[in-house]
């Protein structure tokens, strides 16, 4: 990060704790996510990766009894400030889920719906085409836009979910293990797509697959349960992906990425 | 443990021939009989209805042209037009669905999308109590509460016995059924769909109405169909509150007897076998079957047209 110019920060957490009731699922996270880069969050199961990811667009709000302390800053505004509308937050920070979850509507409507509720007034056909092209799906579906999204394969469905996300032009795209339910070829296509997408978007991806993190990400945050036995997850190391995988500072990171643990 | 297993394996001869499994066969037979019985009973009812209705239509005075082509019903004096009974059944059922579908859906949406788990677990049983009230009580509720209320609102045009009050109260009776079944359908929509919508920046209302509701439409359709069947078949409320005596009208403020109400009233009196009055009841019952069937087919068609599969 020691470049001549200081990197632009897309989103930043300051002393972030995420609670379920009295239980701190994630504690003390301080991350600066750089703009137009892919940042991976890796770590063993149950260490709070998804919980942390969902804190970025306030999806944890739907879990009763969950709350956060600390700050998540999007261009200086704390997303958890008292005057912040979570609906508006999610319009700026899109999300792609582990299992493809297209709406039970046509391919066209899957994309048009989100744009419409976000107040899009322009040429819808054009937007649908652009979004599908952006998600590398246009060529495969251009003749069947009125078909149900559920007639697509899993990999196509996931790209459709990416297309509908970019249709609302978010600043950041969160991806929660976006390829874990897909076959290797579909996975590869999603990974290639991420390289395209980062030209315009900031991407944060949670993945179980360390090779995937190594392949697609510029930065990696390594999460682990705290050593004190509290079952609370935290980021133990955060730096360039290259460093994490070749020269980690923390012994636990090294054990994990070399497969000796987890 | 391991040793005995291995020994057993060696001592067990290779025997792959078919075996008689008595328990399996018995259970299968039992399950088949249970299923068969319900179908058999239905068929027996249809047979019995058909047999008597056949006698009715076999009467030289009765023709299909009269049955479907005239609008006065009084078999004793040779008036065989079924329509006055059908229109009042359709009117009361229509009113009932107009009351119960929107209210039931709204209640279901609230329970499944908005209410906290605690609120839901308190409210749902309370709503279901409505379904446990005897229909004769609903009938008097219609006659003694709803009718005076309607008269106060709409004036003297509202007759003492009228289809509107019976229909509205019937709607209240069906409401818990519709809301309960719809709530089940809404709750069964995968959470992933809701999350997908929220992650697009949809509000709770947009998510509920535009994503969850369409996805649950086939279940809601089933609720609607059962609701319609209940309304068409409901007897006590209309017998008490809708009026006695066939009346060919769609005016909800007039008294008119429904098919079920008519059957209940006539069969309650002194009726001798093999008179035209007696066999006509079976013709009405068959017509009731037909109306229910047609309404179900129509609703099924509408549902199939609009439903969104999420699998």
In terms of quaternary structure, what is this?
A: heterodimer
SS content category of chain A: alpha/beta
What is the succession of H and E elements of chain B? Answer: HHHEEHHHHHHHHHH
Uncertain regions of chain A: pLDDT < 50 for 5+ in a row? none
Tertiary shape of chain A: globular
In CATH, the architecture of the domain at 92-243 in chain B is Orthogonal Bundle
- Strand element count of chain B: 2
| Assigned CATH class of the domain at 92-243 in chain B | Mainly Alpha
Which runs of chain B of at least 5 residues are low in confidence (pLDDT < 50)?
none
| Helix proportion of chain B | over 70%
Structure description:
The complex is a heterodimer of chains A (262) and B (311). With 262 residues, chain A is an alpha/beta fold. Helix content of chain A is 34%, strand content 26%. Chain A contains 10 helices and 10 strands. In chain A, the strands form 2 sheets. In chain A, strands 6-7-8-3-9-10 form a 6-stranded mixed β-sheet, sandwiched between helices. Chain A has a 4-stranded antiparallel β-sheet with strand order 2-1-4-5, with helices on one face. In chain A, strand 1 (9-20) and strand 2 form a beta hairpin. Chain B is mainly alpha-helical. In chain B, strands 1-2 form a two-stranded antiparallel sheet. In chain B, strand 1 and strand 2 (79-80) form a beta hairpin. Chain B is flat, with a radius of gyration of 26 Å. The two termini of chain B are 46 Å apart. At the A-B interface, helix 2, helix 3 and helix 6 of A face helix 8 and helix 9 of B.
């Amino acid at each position: 990060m020691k470049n001549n110019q200081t990197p632009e920060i897309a989103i930043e957490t300051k002393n972030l704790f995420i609670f379920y009731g009295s239980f701190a699922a994630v504690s003390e996270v301080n991350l600066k996510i750089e703009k137009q880069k892919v940042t991976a969050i890796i770590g063993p199961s149950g260490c709070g990766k998804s919980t942390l990811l969902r804190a970025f667009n306030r999806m944890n709000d739907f879990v009763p009894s969950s709350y956060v302390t600390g700050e998540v800053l999007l261009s200086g505004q704390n997303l958890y400030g008292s005057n912040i509308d979570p609906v508006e937050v999610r319009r700026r920070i899109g999300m792609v889920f582990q299992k493809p979850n297209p709406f039970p509507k046509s391919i066209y409507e899957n994309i048009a719906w989100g744009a419409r509720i976000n107040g899009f007034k322009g040429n819808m056909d054009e937007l649908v085409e652009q979004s599908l092209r952006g998600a590398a799906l246009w060529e495969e579906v251009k003749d069947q836009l009125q078909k149900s999204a559920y007639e697509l394969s899993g990999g196509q469905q996931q790209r459709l979910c990416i297309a509908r996300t970019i249709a609302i032009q978010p600043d950041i795209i969160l991806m929660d293990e976006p390829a874990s339910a897909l076959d290797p070829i579909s996975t590869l296509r999603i990974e290639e797509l991420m390289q395209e997408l980062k030209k315009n978007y900031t991407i944060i991806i949670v993945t179980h697959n360390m090779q995937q993190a190594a392949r697609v990400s510029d930065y990696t945050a390594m999460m682990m349960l705290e050593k004190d036995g509290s079952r609370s997850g935290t980021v133990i190391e955060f730096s360039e992906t290259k460093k994490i995988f070749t020269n980690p500072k923390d012994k636990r990171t090294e054990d994990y990425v070399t497969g000796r643990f987890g | 443990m391991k040793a005995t297993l291995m020994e057993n394996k060696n001592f067990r001869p290779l025997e792959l021939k078919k075996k008689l499994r008595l328990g399996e066969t018995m259970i299968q037979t039992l399950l088949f009989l249970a299923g068969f019985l319900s179908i058999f009973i239905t068929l027996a009812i249809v047979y019995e209805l058909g047999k008597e209705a056949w006698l009715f239509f076999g009467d030289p005075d009765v023709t299909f042209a009269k049955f479907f082509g005239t609008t006065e019903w009084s078999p004793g004096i040779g008036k065989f037009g079924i329509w006055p009974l059908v229109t009042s059944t359709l009117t009361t059922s229509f009113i009932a669905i107009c009351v119960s579908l929107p209210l039931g859906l709204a209640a279901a949406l609230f329970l499944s999308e908005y209410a906290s788990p605690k609120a839901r677990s308190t409210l749902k049983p309370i709503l279901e109590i409505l379904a446990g009230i005897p229909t004769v009580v609903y009938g008097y509720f219609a006659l003694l509460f709803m009718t005076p209320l309607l008269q106060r609102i709409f004036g003297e045009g509202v007759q003492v016995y009228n289809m509107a009050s019976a229909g509205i109260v019937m709607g209240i009776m069906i409401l818990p059924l519709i809301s309960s079944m719809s709530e089940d359908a809404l709750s069964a929509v995968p959470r992933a769909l809701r999350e997908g919508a929220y992650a697009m920046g949809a509000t709770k209302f947009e998510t509920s109405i535009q994503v969850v509701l369409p996805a649950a439409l086939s279940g809601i359709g089933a609720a609607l169909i059962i609701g319609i069947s209940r309304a068409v078949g409901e007897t006590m409320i209309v017998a008490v509150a809708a009026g006695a005596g066939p009346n060919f009208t769609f005016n909800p403020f007039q008294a008119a007897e429904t098919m079920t109400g008519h059957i209940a009233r006539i069969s309650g009196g002194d009726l001798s076998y093999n008179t035209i009055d007696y066999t006509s009841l079976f013709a009405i019952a068959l017509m009731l079957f037909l109306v229910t069937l047609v309404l179900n087919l129509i609703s099924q068609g509408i549902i199939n047209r609009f439903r969104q599969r999420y699998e």
